[in-house]
Amino acid sequence: MGLEGIGIGGLLILIANVYAIIKTLGSNATTGSKVFWIILILLLPLLGVIIWFFAGPKS
């Protein structure tokens, strides 16, 4: 896998993070919970979005 693969992987992670943040903001969760999830997603991009997928707030 060359640099192209790394760039595509980074782009996919970015898209997943933006999707997770948008879904979190649109959920019925409390403001504190939304802030927690957004910070987690931003600080741990790949791991954060995986954790969000399984345990994050549902809309």
Along the chain, the helix and strand elements come as: HHH
Spatial gap, N to C terminus: 37 Å
Q: What is the number of helical segments per DSSP (H or I, 4+ residues)? A: 3
| Tally of strands | 0
The major sheet is characterized as: none
- Total domain count: 1
Report the structural category. Answer: mainly alpha
Q: In what range is the share of β-strand residues?
A: under 5%
Oligomer: single chain
The radius of gyration is: 12 Å
Unreliable sequence segments:
none
Provide the helix percentage: over 70%
Report mean pLDDT, rounded to a whole number.
91
Shape: elongated
Explain what you see.
With 59 residues, the chain is mostly helical. The protein starts with a helix and ends with a helix. The longest helix is centred in the N-terminal third of the chain and has 23 residues, at 3-25. α1 packs antiparallel against α2 (31-43) and α2 (31-43) packs antiparallel against α3 (45-55). It is 80% helix and 0% strand.
